[in-house]
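Quick entry, no commentary yet.
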Amino acid sequence: MSEALTEKAERIFCSALKAGSPSGRSELLDRECGGDAALRSMVEELLAAQRDVDVFFASFEDGVAARLPMDELSKAIEEKVGVGASGPKREPEDDVLGMTVGPYKLLQKIGEGGCGVVYMAEQEKPVRRRVALKVIKLGMDTKNVIARFDAERQALALMDHPNIARVLEAGSTESGRPYFVMELVRGTKITEWADANNCDLRRRLDLFIQVCLAVQHAHQKGIIHRDIKPSNILVTMHDGVPVPKVIDFGIAKATGGERLTDLTVFTAYEQFIGTPAYMSPEQAEMSALDIDTRSDIYSLGVLLYELMTGRQPFDQKELLQAGLIEMRRTLREREPLRPSTKVAGLNADELTQTAMHRRIEPPRLRLLLKGDLDWIVMKALEKDRNRRYQTANALALDVQRYLDNEPIVARPPSRLYRFQKLVRRNRAVFVSAAAISLALIAGFGTSTWLFFKEREARHEAQRGREFEAQLRRKAEAREIIAQAISLIEKNQFEKADLLIGSLPSSDAADVGMEVFRPLGDWAAQKGNWRRAAEYYSVVVRLTQFERTPVSSRDYTRYAVVLAELGEREAYENFCREPIKRFGNINDLIITERIVKNSLLLPPSPELLASLAPLANRIEQSIPTNILSAPHNDTVPWRCMALALLNYRGGDYTKAANWSTLGLKIATGPNMSRVASMQAILAMADHQLGRDDEAQAELVKCQQVIAENFKTPFATADIAFDWFLARLLAREAEASLENPLK
């Protein structure tokens, strides 16, 4: 049976449900089906099945069906209606293997979800690669879903994070069914991988931090995952290093809230309870209107709970067997056991197995979980979302604090708790201090001891007053930040800037990045470099635990701003930080940015020498036959970085060669890099005595900038690419004594 015929039958069926009376339905079938007997037969079978569904639910008292466990409900549906809980049986999907969807050939079915089927597919042109292609199932391809796909496509394309499986393309088949094309991730569920490799708690927490930063990146792009669970976080190996990949971003948002027809009511019910163990309490309300990014924080808390204990806070099977009403009550009202308490309740065999997978003795596992890890997990699992971590980055920061043996923020730290942490970090110092104190007490006697007690009481009172004042400041800062975020969402940047102006950056906490980054972008596009520098300095401090292309972009922006201000000493001191922080990372995009950002102004010999290992790494990544071989669109940027490095180092011939090569392979609409390389080539030609060629390249550069440099730019990334090009063009003009008119 053809797909087109099935889709047409379902559309007519939906219209017939709205017709009301039997006579109205009969007239609609006569009009829509005409003389097509096969089509009319299909529609009549669907209408008959719908009548059976109505009879089925009418046979229960009010609310009884909702309280049935899932397996009993499915069995009752099949007995009474004659169809499975997923609706009428469809033809198998395997007959489409070998077919093409756009430029992709379907090779193998690798998965199936509530709204789509996932295939391994192969793209032959313009590059040969294998991808994962998800086609929306029949019955989900409504006009509203297609419209939401178009609205979401731009946001998905903006995501650029090493721990997120990228969405490469979205489109529709010839029959109008939407599809996504995603990066093909060959990996294992994060929990299974951690157990199979017997990862200790530190290694598990390192993986979890990477997942949090990926989720934070998606939240900053306006995307809520809504279905974070181990099967959506796969661990794959890159050069022997485990890398977690978060998959299915945005798809749930595009389809999960769609109102389904009566024919698919059972599919919708199963979609709700498919993974209840990872649902937040607000998701259990079955209303997508009130779900925000903090719902993902709860799901991350469940994931952390499972990584630590090997168990979920609420057992999946027990939730399913309890029925829908009881399941929702449990998620909304019942408090989960702390991880340490959960482990303590395991029997001897389970505890031994769990501890073995974490490379620790069974008695020590509960002791290691008790305290900081308990507090971190339980804060993420708060029923009241206002008491959870407000961002995924805040959760990652607290886990990192635990790994660094620093005080965490998951609970108000008492004086004793802070003192315990201080002692643990400085054990040798405190042992010595304790010995000295005991000697002083023995020597000075009771009066001296009383004196120190009285002084300590005064200090304690003073610390209490200071701590109370600090809490007030933090509360006021959070309120100001919340108001500023609201103004930024309304594009009222001037008001947000005035509001945030009196807030000390030290009070920004870990939610301040949502304010300072967009305000920095706005100030830079306005040409207010001094204000932009103030904002970006805060952003750079708040991303201190990130080592991603996103945080490296923040360094790019701050470097350009300092260069625009002409503050050479501050600029050079700043450039040493990203070299130290990212210098050993294997990401070529980050490496290229570090080299480029460190050379916007003439560098000192020490700074130039520190860039040599990074430059070698970039040069080795560029094939010798680059002009004839297929290459990544980032290669021209690498050529530009090498050209600028050689120019600053005095090798003008190499600088000219790299600029020329980059200009030959630079394609696409990104003209800022073209202007940058033209400026470098003009300066190199001038130093080589080729003044005519230098003047010609400078004129080209000036024309490109004059035609394209028009503020405000669509995005901050585009703006700063052009700011960088303008900096180099000004330097070239000064070098050739030919200012832009």
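second:
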Amino acid sequence: MENGIPGPVSQVRGFFVLGTFGLGPGFPCRGRTPTHGRPARGKETQMTTRFLVAIALLAGGLGSARAEDLAPPPKPADDTPKAEATEEEKAEEVVVTATRLETPAKQVGSSITVITRKEIEQRKQATVLELLRTVPGVDVVQAGPAGGQSSVFLRGAKSEHTLVLIDGVEMNDPITPGRSFDWAHLAADNIERIEVLRGPQGTLYGSDAIGGVIHIITRKGQGPPRVTLGAEAGSRRTFRETLSVTGSTPVFHYAISTAHFETGGISAAERRDGNREKDGYRNSTCSARLGFSPTENFDVDLIVRCIRGKTENDNFGGPGGDDPNYTSDVEQHFVRAQGRLRLLDGAWEQKFGVSYSDHHRTTRNNPDAAHPLDLERSAYDGQIVRFDWQHNFRLHETNTLTVGLETEQESGKSRYHSDGMWGPYDSAFPRQSVRTNSVYVQDSIALGDRFFATAGFRLDDHEQFGSAFTYRVAPTYVIPETGTRIKGSVGTGFKAPTLYQLYDPVYGNPDLQPEKSRGCDFGVEQDLFGGLVTLDATCFRNRFKNLIDFVFVGWSGSYQNVSEAESKGVELGATVRPSNDLTLRATYTHTDTEDKATGLELLRRARHKASVEANYRLLKATNIHLSAAYIGPRKDLFFDNTTFTSSRVTLGSYVLVSLAVTHDVTKNVQVYGRIENLLDQHYQEVKGYGAPGIGFFTGLRATF
């Protein structure tokens, strides 16, 4: 098993290699997230003018500052960059993804990493993908520069085995062959925190959570009205502008933002292979979170996020991959309306909501001088509608019982047309849909301040293959006297066959069964020197069976349940807080993966991965953040477009170093600079595709 080598040749011209992404056939090369052409060089003046206008607005904010504000005081309390949370704050850190309840992190037995808003502000990175690079157990892969097809692997699982949520709305695309999510277009704007939950999570989240869950939680408006403007410019003709409005009243809160990103890019196909044409990218994102609390026991929220991405592609990676007019376009809409009702003095809490996600992708490739016979068009549309109703019964101070009901319908269609030296080809996937009904039960136990546990099960009824049963147990034991926390979990997960795998007229198989996993982990966390040092170690093991692969029969074939795989390893971490102004963090992940049919390791998962981060607050007004990520050698599959053969290759190791410095000129105005790939490393995350070298970026942010 090569993590889903694509089968339908008609839909994978020039991008066989992307099947190893876990994205499979029909999901175009470098994302093929269409665009209507790159930022033309003639538009540089327009982009520069837009940036200068933004700078002028920010300068106006600086010029209007009072004289007494020109000394750099600390920010308001909610924005003050601190090296690390205090002991009180650390004890009160709350997560929601692991149990679907607001739970103190120290009471969670599952392996979870939280990237906070404070850390996002310190690092100043533009995308969620970049923020995930230092998370233990996570492999990040991108085909080329900004806008390139991007995947995330959790603990060696396939990329489509990660369920991605934003405020509870599923982001996985139902019309991709693997029902995966392309991370290339998810900006880091208006995000409160990111929770990365590792291990199978079928009990609470159903299908797709075989490897884990990544939950992006957006900001909730608080305090008086605030308007924040931001502008950034940097290497490779890169510009970014942001605008946000936040605030709240006793009964209403709001957080609205918009952001635009544009870059001239580099060649998607590796420059050292003779590819010179640069591939640009544009992204516009709008986000809103509105809430209304008419009474103390009832509140409602409306959450919306809209994304448009325009990418320039090359035909494939490696020699001869350049294409001057291959473009792609993506539109994504995520909407959720939710309510919460508390009855019986809070003993019975109900949460209910309806979610809608919409994905639209197109590609366009016209003939050109280098490819006079090539023409390609494609369009992919997918939607997910889900209703969920969760009841939390606080039976006793030691016990909370959670019962939930969900129903979800996914649907999609696609069409593809190409013409070339082999003649025209057309392929259509008519609209298909499938419904899943689910019920889950979880018991959360808290015995004093030492023992905490969750145990639960779930039953999903899929209208095509039938039912799937999953379970999970996650205890943790705290020893306050020694600062020790012992944690562990065991659970199962499943992934339903996708619409394409089930119903494609040529390659589909309606008799497919769900993929399944069983995973366990065990860890110890130890505080030393009164909490100045925290050490943690976790070992894990996952077994995947019934995996779906495309099985070739001559030039055709179909999807079959034929594969098994295993991943196991260890995650180590250390956090040192020498002072309130300085925090040091280090992580190391060792992951062994194996295709049980061939004995080979799985593709694009590094056996060794490490990261180091240092954050220092200087004189209250200046913050310095330095991070370094080491990625060891990985195996990949390279398709040679001259011989039409594929072979396993080894991608070399690399180290990515990033530096971000922020300075508060006044309490309302901040300037910052960021250097990416500080060592100017040359590396590839996908064989044949280039990656950006060193980049310099600077920006301003003003709040009114």
